Amino acid sequence: MLRTIRTICLSLPEVTERPSHGTPTFFVRDKKAFVYAWMEGHHGNHFPHLWCAAEPGVQEILLEAEPDTFFRPPYLGPRGWVGVRLDRGIGRDEIAELCQDAYRVIAPRKLVDELESRDG
Questions:
Q1: pLDDT (tens digit per residue) in 2-30
Q2: Mind listing the pLDDT tens digit for each residue in 64-91?
């Protein structure tokens, strides 16, 4: 699963990966994190999961729609980030969409435009 997440995130413009807080983390221009991959779990959540940046209001929508898959992560949850359980059968396409949406929240407009023009 980490290989899939890595492939998705590193395909986005100017993304790098490095450990942060002990877990693989994906950054825009090596500065701002947009996805944390907690493959061994973290902070009492003993299951593989992601923390993804999200637009305002998205966290509430996802938690209400699929509470078994999505959760409010510690630390970044109050800022609207979304926790995504990876042990609930979530598919590659949905993971890609969540990671791309997280990227769009954090990346500067120029890079988002580059992504949009590339994806058509």
A1: 999 999 999 999 999 999 999 999 999 99
A2: 999 999 999 999 998 999 999 999 999 9
Distances from the Cα of 85 to the Cα of 13, 80, 113, angstroms:
25, 16, 29
How many other C-beta atoms lie within 10 A of the C-beta of residue 104? 18
Q: How far is residue 26's CA from residue 109's CA, in Å, rounded to a whole number?
A: 18
Q: Which has the closest alpha carbon to 42: 90, 94, 93, 77?
A: 77
Cα 23 from chain centroid (whole Å): 13
Distance separating alpha carbons of residues 57 and 96, to the nearest angstrom: 20
Which residue bears the tokens 């997280």?
102
Query: Does domain 2-112 correspond to CATH entry 3.40.50.150?
Result: no
Integer-rounded Cα radius of gyration of the chain: 13
User: How far is it, in rounded angstroms, from Cα 107 to Cα 109?
Assistant: 6
Domain ranges of the chain: 2-112
Model's pTM, two decimal places?
0.94
